Amino acid sequence: MHRPDDTPLMQQWRDAKARHPDALIFFRVGDFYEMFHEDAEEGAKLLGLTLTSRNNGGAANVPLAGVPARARDEYIRRLVRLGRRVAICEQVEDPAEAKGIVRREVTETITPGTALADALLSARRNNFLVALGGAWESGGPAADGDGIALAAVDASTGELLAIAADARTLEAELARLEPAELLLPRRLEGQMPPGAEGVVVTYRPDFLFDPESATEELCRRFHVRGLDGFGIERGDGAIVSALGALVAYLAEVQPAAVENLRPPRIERPGEGMALDEMTRRNLELVEPLRADAVAGGRAGTLIEVVDETLTPMGARLLRRWLLRPLVVADAIWRRQEAVAELVDAVGVRRALVAALAEITDLERLAAKVGAGRIAPRELRALGRSLAQLPRLRAAFEAPTAPLLREVVGELDDLADVRDLIDAAIAPDAPATLAEGGVIRAGYDAELDELRAVRDGAQETIAALQARERERTGIPSLKVGYNKVFGYYLEVTRANLDRVPEDFQRKQTLAGSERFITPELKEWESKILGAEDRIAALEARLYAELRERIARELARLQDAARRVALLDVFTALARLAERRAYVRPEVHTGYALEIRAGRHPVVETMMPREAFIPNDVVLDEDSRIMVLTGPNMAGKSTLLRQVGLIQLLAQIGSFVPAAAARLPVCDRIFTRVGASDNLVRGQSTFMVEMNETAAILHGATSRSLVLLDEIGRGTATYDGVSIAWAVTEHLHEVTRAKTIFATHYHELTQLADLLPALVNCNVAVRETGDDIVFLRRLEPGGADRSYGIQVARLAGLPAAVLERAREILLELEGAHAGGGEGLGRRGRLRPRSGASHDQLSLFQPPEPPVLQRLRSLDVEGLTPLQALNLLAELRAEARGGKEEA
Fold it and tell me: What global pTM score does this model have?
């Protein structure tokens, strides 16, 4: 709303701010983008800028902070990463032609989920804006397992998808998409769906999520009369709701990006595996688990090891595969066949690598074409990338794998688009159109003629300088140019007495004066007129070229998708060959069998011969493995390597093993290590129990469950009881393939009670006070955890270690019924009247009859006394008296 004392410029700013109240307005003023009032105060604080003030037409000064226009993207990047929105208010008319103040309008709104500039994006991962449709909140239909959907769009690539979810998979799907921004209806303001903590949330009017309004929006944007062609079915109201709200929001903040959207792809349950956040985190798929890891870093992750892709779109596709493994055997086999063919065909693989290495981000370049934002140098890069498409096709003689035949056989080499770019764009095209020289010589006759006039005039001016030097006898005379005064003849003060009468004074400087002549003025008019006409003609020709290429957007996007697939298949083949991976036998049965399996990440951190491979077998007769052994022996590594091998197999990759026979799992669950969630007010033990509960509720007989230390966050008896009960439930009810690593050696007794449970341990060798970790999996349970030896390796003081050994001996004695308590040295003395014995949970107290037997003097008994005593003991054992 305007104020009476506002200047015209401040009135423009208030208009922009009124339309975008929740954004920081970057207001173009000359060579700067300015922020005013509350925007200036917040922007200065967030960006570390100097806060100053601006006079507002005689009224009170207003706060002001600004950034140079040339550095705009860097400041916007910092704001977007902080979760803020930025509205760019540009000058939309030529200052030279403006009557009064230059008109300004908001041309673009940048939010975390709608960023398009390369500086705001990561090349190797998608930047998803996600909308949530359906009633996921407490008490809604989500509680019954239906009526939820997510829609996601990457504005920088045009990818649009919708995911049918339920209450069990919602959190996992959000984790998989890693949204930069989340759209929710305003009625849910203040509520947060599970798994969305830390995500920037934008609330939109409720009517945009109404299925009818959403249907109209989608039909209008995609120019269709109905949504059946997109695979949307009756009962997909939540999908339509999320898609419609998403597209409407994108059209509002990034109108150009809507034009390059692909038709929505619908993902339904049963097509891919939902990896919950704890599994993704514990297996370190795309982010390291270490708390000290650099944000956004990949060191120590699976993707760092397996990502051999050569193009950005290939890297993004591989990341999506890792976060959503397949659960349909046929689809897995098709990918395996494509990878296997490239493993065997070394020559084909090398030819593909050579071509792929020359291809830039086709996917995002195509999106820029569709949005009308592609720069001349980027268009030239697009042409060079398209030139590699025939090389990709020529790499194959006749692919045998069906998936490769589909990808390569229908790959459009876009020769017409490539030839158009080559003909139109100069080989050394500049970064921006304003720099000139964008259109190639020979492309347009009028442009060539204008350039000839300009270049000829410039040559004439150079000749004019030589003539004037000779005529005036002033050897230092020179012809110069600036934007304010145009062309001029400059003469130093020492030579002013030689200036002819036809020189007209134009400007006086400290050490020289500048002049103009009628001849120079005539040529200046020709040159500047030609430059203006050249700039206008180049702009028109470039716009026409961009529009012609944009009409082929669907072909460009399809080619980018196929190149990404070839890149991923080639990368997985290179990985298999370089790291000696094998093709696993993926089947639809139950048994899991890994021979000489290796951890794909850990083995890269040491010489290949130093990693100890292990066999793991889980089948109907041994579906639960209780894994014991000391800390640092490699139990967690073994758990994770089984999970990673299973996951790699289900994306279609080869796996690190000598051989593997793996079932198709519907879910992989992991619970590894201890952590807390102070934000949610949850202790370490509560987090552990939440994760365990999620596993027990979500796992099926087709799942793979990997547990590490359940019940360690509470009292020993509580913990053992919970671990025991969980193991029984997994054995009797869930029947999932399970590896349970634990230091509760009592659980090894379950092998005598549960027929499909086996004990294994990670072997160590004890030499005196030292232990050697053999890293070898062996049958049977471990009898000790070697905690004191590991503590010594960690550097605990010798006195502490010695005292720990004493306490351990006394505790073990008390556990066996023969200890004397922990009262030595006056430490830990029991309270008066307190028992010294610590009873075992699974072994009852020693009966009195055994105590009497221990105290007998057998050698001093006569035969009659021995018979009488035997009768008494028998009666006592039976609980009553009996005649001798």
Answer: 0.83
> How far is the C-alpha of 349 from the C-alpha of 331, rounded, in Å?
22
Write the CB contacts of 595 (distance below 8 Å, at least 6 apart in sequence).
615, 657, 658, 659, 660
Strands 512-516, 504-508: pairing is antiparallel
The reported pLDDT for the residue numbered 812 is: 63
Q: Residue 524: its pLDDT value, please?
A: 81
Check if the beta carbon of residue 374 is closer than 8 Å to that of residue 382.
yes
Classified as helix, coil or strand, 313 is helix
For 804, the enclosing helix (H) or strand (E) is helix 798-815
Type of residue at 677: N
Q: What is the pLDDT of residues 439-450, one digit of tens each?
A: 999 999 999 988
Q: How far is CA 548 from CA 439, 540, 800, in A?
A: 15, 12, 78
Burial 578-591 (b: 16+ CB within 10 A, else e): ebebbbbebeeeeb
Predicted pLDDT at 679: 39
Rounded Cα–Cα distance for residues 640 and 672 (Å)? 9
Task: Collect contacts of 767-776 with beta carbons under 8 A, ≥24 apart.
Answer: 771/630, 773/630, 773/632, 773/633, 773/634, 774/612, 774/633, 775/612, 775/614, 775/633, 775/634, 775/637, 776/612, 776/614
**589/146 Cα distance (integer angstroms):** 29
The two structure tokens encoding residue 582: 């094998």
Phi-psi region of 626 (alpha: psi -120 to 50; beta: other; left: phi over 0): beta
Q: Check residue 607 and report its DSSP letter.
A: -
* φ, ψ of residue 231 in degrees (nearest 5): 85, 15
Where the chain has pLDDT below 70, the residues are 1-4, 56-60, 96, 136-146, 290-297, 608-609, 632-633, 673-683, 713, 715, 766-774, 783-786, 811-847, 879-884
Residues 821 and 809 sit within 8 Å (Cβ to Cβ): no
